Amino acid sequence: xxxxxxxxxxxxxxxxxxxxxxxxxxxxxxxxxxxxxxxxxxxxxxxxxxxxxxxxxxxxxxxxxxxxxxxxxxxxxxxxxxxxxxxxxxxxxxxxxxxxxxxxxxxxxxxxxxxxxxxxxxxxxxxxxxxxxxxxxxxxxxxxxxxxxxxxxxxxxxxxxxxxxxxxxxxxxxxxxxxxxxxxxxxxxxxxxxxxxxxxxxxxxxxxxxxxxxxxxxx
Length: 219
Fold this sequence. Notes:
The protein is of the alpha+beta class. The protein has four helices and 14 strands. The chain has helices spanning 14-28, 68-71, 108-121, 141-145, and strands at residues 32-38, 48-50, 61-67, 75-80, 84-89, 94-100, 127-132, 158-159, 173-174, 177-181, 185-193, 197-199, 202-204, 211-218. The strands form five sheets. The protein has a five-stranded mixed sheet with strand order 4-5-6-7-10, covered by helices on one side. A three-stranded antiparallel sheet has the order 1-3-2. A two-stranded antiparallel sheet has the order 8-9. Strand 5 and strand 6 form a beta hairpin. The longest helix has 15 residues, at 14-28. The chain is globular. The N and C termini lie far apart (36 Å).
């Protein structure tokens, strides 16, 4: 939601967070960027184009950015209720879904229902699902039974023991930000970006979630 980090300098505002996000995207040069929990404000990156779908989930908006080069190709964009944006790269016969699934310890069946809706709505298989799944690790088993891959990230993508984004936050770690790939496509080079930014002798994070990146390869 571009909120102010608890340990940020006193002058820090949402525009500073937006600028920090932009710098990180420019440094990584990804083809596709997925945002969740935005306050109806999408961080601007001049090298990328926002897809024309900005649905509101249970907490903030989703947005997908695609590099300007790929945005000039044949794309199809579909929103699934408020929890997913599907971008289909027609020339590649590939769909990438940006998701923000329902939260809550007991909401596993609801999350699996949402994923099933994403799979049903996808114009293609291969399909890669990436985003804030809010899933517990064991909840992925039904997807694996369907032939999807999706290894647990190498580090927790939520770690409030280490990431003191909110000073009064409940401390726990989880693997909420995940990826799942159908047969015909794989994901490699997974990185959890958990390095804080350093400004004015302060060290802090600009989100309570760590960003996740990887490389998508068609079979």
